Hints:
alpha/beta
Amino acid sequence: xxxxxxxxxxxxxxxxxxxxxxxxxxxxxxxxxxxxxxxxxxxxxxxxxxxxxxxxxxxxxxxxxxxxxxxxxxxxxxxxxxxxxxxxxxxxxxxxxxxxxxxxxxxxxxxxxxxxxxxxxxxxxxxxxxxxxxxxxxxxxxxxxxxxxxxxxxxxxxxxxxxxxxxxxxxxxxxxxxxxxxxxxxxxxxxxxxxxxxxxxxxxxxxxxxxxxxxxxxxxx
Length: 221
Protein backbone atom coordinates (compact mmCIF):
# COMPACT_ATOMS: atom_id res chain seq x y z
CA UNK A 1 0.00 0.00 0.00
CA UNK A 2 1.09 3.56 -0.77
CA UNK A 3 -0.28 6.44 1.32
CA UNK A 4 0.18 10.07 0.30
CA UNK A 5 -1.00 13.44 1.52
CA UNK A 6 -1.04 12.74 5.25
CA UNK A 7 0.08 16.37 5.62
CA UNK A 8 -2.27 17.70 2.98
CA UNK A 9 -1.41 20.90 1.16
CA UNK A 10 1.85 21.35 3.05
CA UNK A 11 3.16 18.23 1.31
CA UNK A 12 0.96 18.52 -1.79
CA UNK A 13 3.68 17.07 -4.02
CA UNK A 14 3.17 13.66 -2.40
CA UNK A 15 -0.43 13.77 -3.66
CA UNK A 16 0.78 14.81 -7.11
CA UNK A 17 3.20 11.87 -7.07
CA UNK A 18 0.41 9.45 -6.14
CA UNK A 19 -1.63 10.74 -9.07
CA UNK A 20 1.33 10.27 -11.43
CA UNK A 21 1.88 6.73 -10.17
CA UNK A 22 -1.80 5.90 -10.62
CA UNK A 23 -1.73 7.23 -14.20
CA UNK A 24 1.45 5.29 -14.95
CA UNK A 25 0.00 2.05 -13.59
CA UNK A 26 -3.21 2.52 -15.55
CA UNK A 27 -1.11 2.84 -18.70
CA UNK A 28 1.25 0.02 -17.69
CA UNK A 29 -0.72 -2.48 -15.57
CA UNK A 30 1.95 -5.11 -16.22
CA UNK A 31 4.15 -3.18 -13.76
CA UNK A 32 2.32 -4.89 -10.90
CA UNK A 33 3.28 -8.57 -10.55
CA UNK A 34 0.43 -11.02 -10.97
CA UNK A 35 0.72 -12.17 -7.37
CA UNK A 36 0.55 -8.64 -5.90
CA UNK A 37 -2.24 -6.16 -5.24
CA UNK A 38 -1.28 -2.51 -4.85
CA UNK A 39 -3.49 0.02 -3.05
CA UNK A 40 -2.73 3.74 -3.50
CA UNK A 41 -4.40 6.29 -1.24
CA UNK A 42 -3.76 9.58 -3.02
CA UNK A 43 -4.65 11.82 -0.07
CA UNK A 44 -5.25 10.86 3.55
CA UNK A 45 -5.91 14.49 4.48
CA UNK A 46 -8.45 16.09 2.09
CA UNK A 47 -9.04 18.98 4.53
CA UNK A 48 -5.38 19.92 4.41
CA UNK A 49 -5.17 19.28 0.67
CA UNK A 50 -7.53 22.22 0.16
CA UNK A 51 -4.97 24.57 1.72
CA UNK A 52 -1.47 25.01 0.28
CA UNK A 53 1.52 25.74 2.48
CA UNK A 54 1.94 25.32 6.26
CA UNK A 55 -1.78 25.96 6.91
CA UNK A 56 -2.54 22.74 5.04
CA UNK A 57 -0.56 20.40 7.26
CA UNK A 58 -3.35 19.60 9.72
CA UNK A 59 -6.93 18.53 9.14
CA UNK A 60 -10.01 20.70 9.78
CA UNK A 61 -9.71 20.02 13.53
CA UNK A 62 -6.14 21.34 13.62
CA UNK A 63 -4.73 17.84 14.15
CA UNK A 64 -1.49 16.58 12.67
CA UNK A 65 -2.67 13.16 11.48
CA UNK A 66 0.84 11.73 11.72
CA UNK A 67 0.73 12.34 15.46
CA UNK A 68 -2.73 10.81 15.91
CA UNK A 69 -2.11 7.07 15.49
CA UNK A 70 -2.16 4.83 18.60
CA UNK A 71 1.58 4.12 18.61
CA UNK A 72 3.55 5.94 21.29
CA UNK A 73 0.81 8.60 21.14
CA UNK A 74 1.30 11.69 23.28
CA UNK A 75 -1.24 14.48 23.45
CA UNK A 76 1.41 17.06 24.31
CA UNK A 77 4.43 15.85 22.34
CA UNK A 78 7.82 17.53 22.47
CA UNK A 79 8.28 20.05 19.62
CA UNK A 80 12.08 20.43 19.76
CA UNK A 81 13.58 19.39 16.42
CA UNK A 82 10.08 18.76 15.03
CA UNK A 83 7.88 20.76 12.65
CA UNK A 84 6.32 23.63 14.62
CA UNK A 85 5.32 26.33 12.15
CA UNK A 86 1.68 26.06 13.26
CA UNK A 87 0.12 25.16 16.64
CA UNK A 88 -1.23 21.74 15.62
CA UNK A 89 -2.21 19.05 18.12
CA UNK A 90 -2.08 15.25 18.25
CA UNK A 91 -5.85 15.07 18.80
CA UNK A 92 -7.86 14.66 21.98
CA UNK A 93 -7.18 10.91 22.05
CA UNK A 94 -5.30 8.31 19.97
CA UNK A 95 -7.12 7.74 16.66
CA UNK A 96 -9.56 10.54 17.46
CA UNK A 97 -9.72 11.69 13.83
CA UNK A 98 -11.98 10.20 11.13
CA UNK A 99 -9.11 10.02 8.65
CA UNK A 100 -7.01 8.01 11.09
CA UNK A 101 -9.91 5.71 11.90
CA UNK A 102 -10.73 5.12 8.23
CA UNK A 103 -7.19 4.08 7.31
CA UNK A 104 -6.80 1.88 10.38
CA UNK A 105 -10.12 0.18 9.61
CA UNK A 106 -9.10 -0.45 5.99
CA UNK A 107 -5.71 -1.94 6.88
CA UNK A 108 -7.23 -4.09 9.61
CA UNK A 109 -10.08 -5.26 7.37
CA UNK A 110 -7.67 -6.47 4.68
CA UNK A 111 -6.32 -9.12 7.04
CA UNK A 112 -9.81 -10.62 7.51
CA UNK A 113 -10.69 -11.05 3.84
CA UNK A 114 -10.72 -14.71 2.81
CA UNK A 115 -7.83 -15.71 0.53
CA UNK A 116 -6.17 -12.31 1.00
CA UNK A 117 -2.90 -12.14 2.96
CA UNK A 118 -3.57 -8.58 4.11
CA UNK A 119 -1.31 -5.57 3.63
CA UNK A 120 2.30 -6.80 3.62
CA UNK A 121 4.23 -3.54 3.19
CA UNK A 122 3.44 0.17 3.20
CA UNK A 123 5.07 3.41 2.03
CA UNK A 124 3.91 6.67 3.56
CA UNK A 125 5.14 9.52 1.35
CA UNK A 126 6.26 12.81 2.90
CA UNK A 127 8.33 15.83 1.94
CA UNK A 128 10.97 16.96 2.25
CA UNK A 129 14.57 15.88 2.25
CA UNK A 130 15.06 13.82 5.42
CA UNK A 131 15.45 10.37 3.86
CA UNK A 132 13.75 7.03 4.53
CA UNK A 133 12.42 6.23 8.02
CA UNK A 134 11.63 2.61 8.96
CA UNK A 135 8.58 1.97 11.11
CA UNK A 136 8.66 0.49 14.58
CA UNK A 137 9.70 1.63 18.00
CA UNK A 138 12.49 0.65 17.85
CA UNK A 139 12.51 0.05 14.07
CA UNK A 140 11.64 -3.54 13.22
CA UNK A 141 13.89 -5.69 11.00
CA UNK A 142 11.46 -5.96 8.07
CA UNK A 143 10.92 -2.20 7.96
CA UNK A 144 14.68 -1.64 8.09
CA UNK A 145 15.15 -4.04 5.16
CA UNK A 146 12.46 -2.18 3.23
CA UNK A 147 14.10 1.18 3.99
CA UNK A 148 17.47 -0.11 2.85
CA UNK A 149 15.97 -1.57 -0.32
CA UNK A 150 14.25 1.68 -1.32
CA UNK A 151 17.24 3.84 -0.43
CA UNK A 152 19.52 1.65 -2.58
CA UNK A 153 17.61 2.51 -5.78
CA UNK A 154 17.01 6.19 -5.02
CA UNK A 155 18.65 9.41 -3.88
CA UNK A 156 16.87 9.16 -0.53
CA UNK A 157 19.23 8.62 2.36
CA UNK A 158 19.21 5.80 4.88
CA UNK A 159 19.79 6.23 7.75
CA UNK A 160 17.67 9.39 7.55
CA UNK A 161 18.65 12.83 8.79
CA UNK A 162 18.30 13.11 12.58
CA UNK A 163 16.89 16.50 13.58
CA UNK A 164 16.43 15.54 17.21
CA UNK A 165 12.66 15.17 16.84
CA UNK A 166 11.02 12.48 18.97
CA UNK A 167 8.25 11.14 16.74
CA UNK A 168 4.97 10.16 18.36
CA UNK A 169 1.66 8.80 17.06
CA UNK A 170 3.06 7.95 13.64
CA UNK A 171 1.29 5.94 10.95
CA UNK A 172 4.32 3.77 10.15
CA UNK A 173 4.86 2.89 13.82
CA UNK A 174 1.23 1.77 14.15
CA UNK A 175 1.51 -0.18 10.89
CA UNK A 176 4.69 -1.87 12.11
CA UNK A 177 2.89 -2.92 15.29
CA UNK A 178 0.37 -4.75 13.07
CA UNK A 179 3.17 -6.92 11.65
CA UNK A 180 3.55 -4.92 8.41
CA UNK A 181 6.83 -3.60 7.02
CA UNK A 182 6.45 0.18 6.77
CA UNK A 183 8.53 3.23 5.88
CA UNK A 184 8.22 6.98 5.55
CA UNK A 185 9.80 8.13 2.29
CA UNK A 186 10.62 11.85 2.11
CA UNK A 187 10.64 13.50 -1.31
CA UNK A 188 13.57 15.79 -2.11
CA UNK A 189 11.68 19.07 -1.64
CA UNK A 190 8.17 20.53 -1.36
CA UNK A 191 7.85 21.21 -5.11
CA UNK A 192 8.85 18.16 -7.15
CA UNK A 193 7.38 14.66 -7.29
CA UNK A 194 10.67 12.88 -8.07
CA UNK A 195 8.61 10.75 -10.45
CA UNK A 196 11.48 8.99 -12.23
CA UNK A 197 13.16 8.20 -8.91
CA UNK A 198 9.91 6.81 -7.56
CA UNK A 199 9.36 4.54 -10.52
CA UNK A 200 12.53 2.79 -9.32
CA UNK A 201 11.25 2.93 -5.74
CA UNK A 202 7.96 1.39 -6.90
CA UNK A 203 9.78 -1.42 -8.70
CA UNK A 204 11.83 -2.21 -5.60
CA UNK A 205 8.72 -1.96 -3.42
CA UNK A 206 6.75 -4.39 -5.56
CA UNK A 207 9.60 -6.91 -5.52
CA UNK A 208 10.09 -6.67 -1.74
CA UNK A 209 9.49 -9.94 0.09
CA UNK A 210 8.49 -9.21 3.69
CA UNK A 211 9.24 -11.63 6.45
CA UNK A 212 6.16 -11.72 8.62
CA UNK A 213 6.33 -9.81 11.87
CA UNK A 214 4.43 -10.54 15.04
CA UNK A 215 1.99 -7.71 15.86
CA UNK A 216 3.08 -6.00 19.06
CA UNK A 217 2.52 -2.94 21.14
CA UNK A 218 5.30 -0.38 20.58
CA UNK A 219 7.17 0.81 23.63
CA UNK A 220 7.73 4.42 24.57
CA UNK A 221 10.75 6.28 23.26
